Amino acid sequence: MLSLPADSHALCVAPMIDVTDRHCRFFHRLLAPRAWLYSEMTTTGALKFGDRQRHLQFNEAEKPVALQLGGCEPEDLALGAKLGEQWGYDEINLNCGCPSLKVQKGAFGACLMRDADLVADCVKAMQDATSVPVTVKHRLGLDGETDFAFLQDFVGKLYETGCRIFIVHARHAVLGGLSPKENREIPPLQYDEAAKLKAIFPEARFILNGGLTDVETCLDELKRFDGVMLGRAAWHNPAILAQLSVAMGHIDAMPDEDKIVEAMVQYAYEQITYGVPLRVVVKPLLDWPLGRRGARQWRRTLSDNSLLDLNDANLLTQAWETLKQA
Description:
- This protein is of the alpha/beta class.
- The chain is built from 17 helices and nine strands.
- It has helices spanning 22-31, 44-49, 52-56, 74-86, 101-105, 116-129, 148-161, 180-183, 191-200, 215-221, 232-236, 239-247, 257-273, 278-282, 295-301, 305-308, 314-325, and strands at 11-13, 36-38, 42-43, 65-70, 91-96, 134-142, 165-173, 205-209, 227-230.
- Helix 4 links the parallel strand 4 (65-70) and strand 5.
- The longest helix has 17 residues, at 257-273.
């Protein structure tokens, strides 16, 4: 049985490759103290043969944070789950939704939805290797498998393993002919189809993902889902995480922006001493003041290669003061 609070996943930030790295998660935590954060997808091969510290390292301030794994071999996924727990992650998530060509060549991601029995074996192996929750992120279906019965069977077989948290990207995946970006936009959103799962599996938790871009829609969907997961909206408009945190009662008021900048400056100084370029640390902040007077200058300053090459964290302070003056 799950030992997590009933509202643990009420607000989540999706795993996004080249986006939700540890620096992005540190910033998101400042905006949303109770959000459940996810790592970029890490392949089992990267953990088996690559630099584990580079892939698994994170700041304690990011917690709670989940490790998303990509793979299709139960033994390798079990190793990844075990390592994730050892490094302190609060959840291990299996990717069954990514439609990229690279993932398809590796026969994992959305491809896994073709074989629910294999996914069940993978989940069971991961559960046996760790004591933290093992969860699954998936689509409604893929290619020709668009009947709800297909989705119900897929979720049902994982439910039988004891899996109780499902993150549903409420679109089908099209593995032939559509890019990952097109797979986030062209297949229609079907929130009602995803909601049917909650009625069939009432003891499981279902987190809605896909197309959530405003506070009002998120609050409406929380009436029938156990949580909402924001993807690109959290990247292109980070302030929405703080707005949702207030609307959901996670915090009493919008975070003090001066304190957020102060924390990020201190964090940037620390990361620079470890050899991390300033441009990597400030990248998640570029669209933070979206829609505000001075936002364009803020972005221009924090994207200026000549300034970033100086690797001085005080650049962030200067950009913030300029924004406030505007």
